[in-house]
Specification:
- With 569 residues, the protein is of the alpha/beta class.
- Helices cover 39% and strands 11% of the residues.
- Helix 6 links the parallel strand 2 and strand 3.
- Helix 20 runs parallel beside helix 21.
- The chain is elongated and about 80 Å long.
Length: 569
C-alpha cells in the first residue's frame, strides 16, 4: 500500500511508507511483479514505447497549452509528465485531470533540487545545494529529504529529478554552480546520499544528475554541447565518484548529461546521452547500475543541434536510456523507435526490461492504486510549521565564519552602530532584525550602482561609527559567481574594510568573494551563500551570541579562503 492521504501527519506518513516499502525500488526490480506483467502484456508495441516518454507540463501558461498536453496524454498514452513553473493548487487539479486521461497511471515528476519551491509559487524553498554543502551534520540533509518527499507526494508527484551530484570544481560553471554541494567529491557524495535516502525512505523516486559529471564545464548545455576533455582516469576518480557511491547506496535513478566526452566516446558531436558506450558501457556495465536511466531534456540545444527530428530520441533509446524527457517531436520519435525495435536494433529482452522498469517504478510509487490529489488544505500542508523550522535549522547550520571569531563580531548594543545593506533598494531582513538588538544604530542601503560621490560621502559618515555591520546581497534568482555590482560599489566594499570594526555577511554565491578584493581584511566575515530571510536571521543570531557558526566552505575560493575554511566543528 501507499499512503498519500493529506489528513495524516508527516511523521505518520513517513513511518507508514517506510513500513509499506520494505524493499527499495532497486530491490523490487529483481522480483516477479504481477501488476507490471499484466499491464505490459496489455500494451501494444507503440504504447510500450510511449511509456518511456515524459512530456512537459506547466500551470503558468495558457489553457490552450494545458489542453494540448491533455491531448497528447490521451492520444499517445505517454509514461509520464514533468511539471515546470506554476502554482500548487493549479498543478494538483491539473494532475488529477491528466491522470484520468491515462489508461496506465502517469509517473509525475519535477525538478525539485531545493524542493517544490524550485518550480512553484506559494510554496517553501529549502536552501540551495551549495548552502547545504557547508553543513557538517548530514542528518539535517536527510530530514530535508523527508520533508521534500512529503511535499512531492502531497502534490501527486512520484519522482524528483534530484539531487544534483555534480562536483562543481569550475567557479565559472554557468549551469551547475550553486546547484552542487561543492567541489569536494567526498562531501558531494555524502550530502547527495543523505538527501536521496531521506526522499526514498519516505516513498519518493529520486534521480542523481548529471552523469558522468557536469561540474567542470563552462558551457550551458541548454545552449550548446559542452566538452569534458579529461582523461578516463580523471573521470573515474573525480567526476564519477559521487555517482558510484550513490549507486552503491541504492539510488533509484541516474540522469545522463548532454556532454561531449572524447575519453569515453570519440564520436564527433555525440552527447553522452546518446552514447551507448557511456550509458550502457560505463553506467550500466562498469558501474553496475540497475535502476532508471533518465535522459536530460531532449529539447536542449546540446542534442537538437546535431540530432533533429526524433533522431536524438532514437539514439537515446538505443544508448540505454529508460526515460526520455521532453521530446520536441514525440510522434516522429516513437515511430523511429518502433521501427528500430521491429528491425531488431535492440534485443527483445532489453526492450522489455526498459518498459518494465518504468512500470515497476509506478508500482513502487503506489500508482497501481489510483487516488486523486486532495485539494483541501493543500496550501496549509505545503507551508507547514515543521518544514519552516527545518529550513531555519538548515540555514543556521550552514553559516560559515571565514574570518574572525564569534567574540570579535559580537554586537555591542550600546555602541554607535551602522548597519549597511549593499546591492538592494530597501531595508533588508538582516537590517531590521539586527537593529532590534541595538539602542543606538542607523540603517543605510547601497544599490548595485550607487554613484561614487554618494559612496564617498557615506564612507565619511561611517567613520563616526564604533561598529559597522555590512550585508552583501545578491537579489538575482540565480546567484552567479560574480556580483552584478558597479566597480564603484566594489571599491566601496574594499574601502569599508579599512574601518577598525567592520563585520561583513555575504548573502550571495560563495564564489563572489573572489571578486571582492580586500574583503579578507574585514574584522569578521560570514559566508551565508544566498539571500533568504532565514539566512539573514542566522547571521543576526551569530552577531547577537545566539548561534555558534559551524559551517565550512564547500568550495575553494582563493588563497585566503580555501575549501573547508570555517571556525566551526
Amino acid at each position: 500500500m501507499f499512503f498519500t492521504c493529506a489528513a495524516i501527519t508527516l511523521s505518520t506518513l513517513i513511518c507508514n511508507d517506510t513500513l509499506a516499502q520494505q524493499n527499495s525500488y532497486i530491490q523490487s526490480l529483481g522480483q516477479q511483479n504481477h501488476w507490471v506483467d499484466s499491464v505490459y502484456n496489455k500494451l501494444s508495441r507503440r504504447q510500450k514505447i510511449a511509456q518511456l516518454f515524459f512530456i512537459r507540463a506547466h500551470t503558468n501558461l495558457s489553457r490552450a497549452f494545458e489542453d494540448s498536453v491533455a491531448k497528447v496524454i490521451e492520444s499517445e498514452q505517454v509514461g509520464g509528465i514533468v511539471f515546470f513553473q506554476g502554482g500548487p493548487g493549479r498543478q494538483a487539479a491539473l494532475t488529477n485531470r491528466y491522470q484520468h486521461l491515462a489508461r496506465v497511471p502517469l509517473l509525475v515528476a519535477m525538478d525539485g533540487e531545493w524542493g517544490v519551491g524550485m518550480r512553484l509559487d506559494s510554496t517553501l524553498s529549502y536552501p540551495y545545494q551549495m548552502t547545504l554543502g557547508a553543513i557538517q551534520d548530514n542528518t539535517l540533509v536527510y530530514r530535508m529529504g523527508q520533508q521534500v518527499a512529503y511535499d512531492f507526494k502531497r502534490l501527486g508527484l512520484q519522482m524528483n529529478f534530484a539531487p544534483d551530484m555534480d562536483v562543481n570544481n569550475n567557479p565559472d560553471n554557468p549551469v551547475i554552480n550553486y546547484r552542487s554541494f561543492g567541489d569536494n567529491k567526498y562531501n558531494v557524495a555524502k550530502k547527495g546520499i543523505a538527501y536521496f535516502k531521506g526522499m526514498q525512505e519516505a516513498g519518493l523516486l529520486t534521480t542523481a544528475k548529471h552523469f558522468p559529471g557536469h561540474g567542470d564545464t563552462n558551457v550551458d548545455s541548454h545552449l550548446e554541447l559542452p566538452l569534458l576533455p579529461f582523461t578516463r582516469q580523471r573521470l573515474d576518480s573525480l567526476e564519477e565518484y559521487p555517482f558510484r557511491e550513490a549507486i552503491a547506496a541504492g539510488i533509484n535513478g541516474v540522469m545522463i548529461a548532454h556532454m561531449s566526452i572524447p575519453a569515453l566516446d570519440s564520436a564527433k558531436n555525440r552527447p553522452s546521452t546518446l552514447s551507448r558506450k557511456i550509458v550502457t558501457g560505463v553506467l550500466k556495465d562498469s558501474l553496475g547500475f540497475k535502476g532508471l536511466v533518465v535522459s536530460d531534456a531532449m529539447e536542449m540545444k546540446a542534442v537538437t543541434k546535431y540530432f533533429p527530428d526524433g533522431e536524438a530520441e532514437l539514439q537515446a533509446f538505443l544508448a540505454g536510456n529508460d526515460i526520455i524527457e521532453l521530446s520536441l517531436n514525440l510522434d516522429k520519435a516513437i515511430s523511429k523507435i518502433k521501427k528500430a525495435v521491429r528491425k531488431g536494433l535492440i534485443s527483445k529482452a532489453e526492450f522489455e526490461a526498459k518498459v518494465k522498469k518504468v512500470l515497476a517504478a509506478k508500482y513502487w510509487a503506489g500508482l497501481n492504486s489510483r487516488k486523486d490529489v486532495e485539494l483541501k488544505n493543500l496550501s496549509a500542508d505545503l507551508n507547514r510549521e515543521p518544514a519552516r523550522l527545518l529550513i531555519q535549522q538548515l540555514s543556521d547550520a550552514s553559516v560559515t565564519m571565514v574570518k574572525g571569531t564569534p567574540e570579535a563580531v559580537r554586537l555591542n548594543p550600546l555602541q554607535k552602530t551602522a548597519i549597511v545593506s549593499i546591492g538592494v533598494d530597501r531595508y533588508t531582513t538582516f537590517q531590521t532584525e539586527l537593529s532590534k538588538w541595538s539602542t543606538n544604530c542607523h540603517l543605510f542601503t547601497v544599490n548595485k550602482s550607487t554613484p561614487v560621490p554618494e559612496l564617498n560621502r557615506l564612507l565619511e559618515m561611517l567613520k563616526e561609527y564604533n561598529q559597522v555591520y555590512v550585508s552583501i546581497n545578491d537579489t538575482r534568482t540565480r546567484p552567479a559567481s560574480k556580483l552584478d555590482y558597479s566597480n564603484g560599489v566594489k571599491e566601496f566594499i574594499a574601502a569599508l574594510t579599512a574601518h577598525n570594526n567592520t563585520v561583513i555577511s555575504v548573502f550571495a554565491n560563495a564564489y563572489t568573494l573572489a571578486g571582492l578584493p580586500g574583503i579578507e581584511k574585514s574584522t569578521g566575515l560570514l559566508v551565508c551563500y544566498q539571500m533568504s530571510d532565514e539566512l539573514q536571521r542566522s547571521a543576526v543570531k551569530v552577531f547577537t551570541g545566539q548561534l555558534k557558526p559551524t559551517g565550512k566552505l564547500p568550495v575553494s575560493i582563493n588563497v585566503f579562503f580555501p575549501g573547508g575554511t570555517g571556525t566551526g566543528l
